[in-house]
Amino acid sequence: MKNFLPCLKGLFGLLAPVWGRLLVCTLVYLLEAGAGLAFVWYSKEVVDLAISGGELTRSVLLLVCIMAFQVACRIVSRYLEGYVLTKAKLDIRARAFSKALRSRWQGRDKYHSADVVNRLEEDIRVVSEFVCSSLPQCFVTVVQLIAAVAMLFSLSSSLAWILVWIMPVAVLAARLFFRRMRRISSDLRNIDGNIQGHIQEHLQNRALVKSLSCESAIENGLDSLQDEELRLTRKRLNYSAISRSFMQLGFSAGYLTAFLWGVFGLRDGSVTYGLMVAFLQLVGQVQRPVATMASYIPAFIKALSSEDRLLDIDSMPQDSGESFSALGMVPELRVEKLTFHYEGRSRMIFQDFDCVFESGRLTAVCGPTGRGKSTLANLILGLLSPVSGRILLCGADGSSVECGPSTRRNFMYVPQGNSLLSGSIRANLLLAKPDASEEQMRDALYTAAAEFVFDLPQGLDTACSEVGRGLSEGQAQRIAIARALLHEGGVLILDEATSALDIETEELVLQRLCERYRGERTIICITHRMAAARLADSLVTLQ
């Protein structure tokens, strides 16, 4: 849990984009509160006129107008609040999503994907509602409270002093548990993220769960997480119950004092009926703001806990730099004195490793599992950073640049496994080249031996579910190859891109790739199968 001040600064920093709209919304809230106080004041006049037998028509009409104005302000303020809240939520989510999407990756994610989704949904909702709804209303409540107390003093200063002291003391006593409540709220938000991660991951991989017959173990894991959530919730409810007890005692004492004051005042003639009606309404006008302000404290604590989690995303290290133009269509790659190990692990994957991927040639990268073949691809792409050494992208004119995030657009990349996203086949292809024509997509699919797409009932518009489900592994791999071929770049990296294909189809794909791109692209084929090795111009073996 971060320190209080950074969380508070981040929370109020969210006001900047919506400041103007919040100001308008707050002004309408103030008009509504002012109308409420005016209604109390004139209700006293109406009651006293009724008892004295005075003319009521004008005062009643004014009272009706005040009430109508208050209702109109309430309608407008709720509309504005809904709009501002939605706009702020969308803006904050877009920024946080961009931060998460563009964050630097060092071999593993710090947070589970479901936890990040939970932060982008629930935490943003909590923070947005506090900033755009609770905060303006809190300001209006303070103004309303000051005005109500001032009116109380104008009616009876001695009683007003009693009420002013009773209720704030009750609220302060109720909020002695601020720090503990913040800790519990933070723990609850974290356990909620863990539960969402547990559910999402095991539903996404339920075929594996079924094959291992471990449904009961997974269900028991969820039960344990939910038991912890229930324990923390009960703990928070206990503290809240104590807080509410203090508040209710204070409010009850305040109202009872005002009521008895009115009763005895009526008996001795020091209080009129109109004054008593106004005073009891004003007590409510004081108690409601105090109670509302007290309710903002747990909302504030919850918002701080959520902002704490959003700051984790905001502080993620980011990939930086714009992508360079391709250094010639057929660049060469040089790996010089490369040393690398994963963060938090001592075992070296590479140590003083050198190799060259020659321009326009097909190089097969082979080696046993776990020797760093995919790691080398991630280092070339700038997804990982070397501990020392460098990887150079060299143009035909002798220019060179070190590989990193800024050179990523120079590569056409096919990751291992099923890498299709939910959506249509067309949508997956357009990720690589948004303006690709039908002819370009058809050409890429042919080169990847994926012409089967045009035999599907909906062709390019055939839907893929999560990670390409609905297609076979081999079909998904060939579409992923076609997608990479649409991306503009001088280096084609195939990371076990044909592992799900039968031998005949694999050879067809590799032959078409060589016919189309040998001499026009530098091709790096990471594989443990012989077909690519036989077609390769050179071989890099990792031991």
- The computed structural class is alpha/beta
Question: How many β-strand stretches?
Answer: 11
- The CATH H-level superfamily of the largest domain is ABC transporter type 1, transmembrane domain
The percentage helix is 55-70%
Number of helices: 15
| Percent in strands | 5-15%
Description:
This protein is of the alpha/beta class and 543 residues long. The strands form 3 sheets. Strands 6-9-10-3-11 form a 5-stranded parallel β-sheet, sandwiched between helices. A 4-stranded antiparallel β-sheet has the order 2-1-4-5, with no helix packed on it. A two-stranded antiparallel sheet has the order 7-8. The model has no long low-confidence stretch (mean pLDDT 80). It is elongated. A hairpin with a 5-residue loop joins strand 4 (388-394) and strand 5 (400-402). The protein is built from 15 helices and 11 strands. Helix 1 crosses helix 9, helix 2 (19-52) packs parallel to helix 4 and helix 3 (57-101) packs antiparallel against helix 4. The protein folds into 2 domains: 4-314, ABC transporter type 1, transmembrane domain (ABC transporter transmembrane region fold); 332-541, P-loop containing nucleotide triphosphate hydrolases (Rossmann fold, 3-Layer(aba) Sandwich). 62% of the residues lie in helices and 10% in strands. The two termini are 44 Å apart.
